[in-house]
Amino acid sequence: xxxxxxxxxxxxxxxxxxxxxxxxxxxxxxxxxxxxxxxxxxxxxxxxxxxxxxxxxxxxxxxxxxxxxxxx
Length: 72
Known about the structure:
mainly alpha, 4 helices
């Protein structure tokens, strides 16, 4: 591997590591929505989109139910 390639890989890793939890959540949420739109059953698609639409704050509360009132 050349030095330039190594710097490129290291730079990419640093960029990915810089993503916040919220950004990562939003990327995953959009990916989930796209999967929902591929469902042919309307009821299933609606349920999927409802699950994919939860706000980040509610998602965080679900991760730490005992700290639901804490802000970081």
